[in-house]
Write a structure and sequence with these properties.
4-stranded antiparallel beta sheet, Immunoglobulin-like, 3-stranded antiparallel beta sheet, 11 strands, mainly beta, 152 residues, 9% helix
Length: 152
């Protein structure tokens, strides 16, 4: 009898060792692959004599990907002003005659192709809505470099 009471007490004490947290939000998600529980925004922290222990992600963060493929490594290019309001200047120090600037909006829609015929080319952005744009500067053989421009 004492043995069963000892086992029951041991099992009961094991169930109280789970982690607990006061969270702003959370839930359960299920699918064909299984289920899981999640929590968002653990809003408190505890500290000890050696420092502070944060219990969860408390700072906002943003994850986004912007790639710059430098296959035209020898190209020395300046895009200014960035951010811009009325016109964008594309200035190439070591200019080559077969360059084209292809301009895409943030959704990937092609807006404009500009043949770069001089070391400095001005592109009017007056009719573009305020957003982020991507400019691919490429040569005739298919090499290109990508740049990000913001229009206010």
């Amino acid at each position: 009898m004492k043995f069963l009471l000892l086992i029951f007490t041991g099992l009961l004490s094991m169930s109280t060792l789970a982690q607990q947290a006061n969270v702003a939000s959370g839930g359960n998600a299920t699918g064909t692959g299984g289920s899981f529980s999640y929590s968002v925004g653990q809003v408190f922290y505890s500290s000890d004599t050696e420092g502070t222990i944060n219990e969860g992600v408390q700072q906002p963060y943003e994850i986004y990907t912007v790639s710059v493929e430098e296959s035209l490594v020898e190209l020395e290019l300046n895009l200014y002003p960035n951010p811009t309001l009325h016109e964008l200047s594309i200035e190439i120090t070591n200019f080559k005659s077969d360059l084209t600037a292809t301009i895409y909006n943030s959704g990937g829609l092609l807006l404009e192709n500009v043949k770069l015929i001089s070391p400095r080319t001005l592109v009017s952005v007056d009719n573009w809505p305020a957003s982020t744009y991507y400019i691919h500067v490429g040569d005739a053989s298919g090499n290109s470099s990508k740049y990000k421009v913001i229009k206010n």
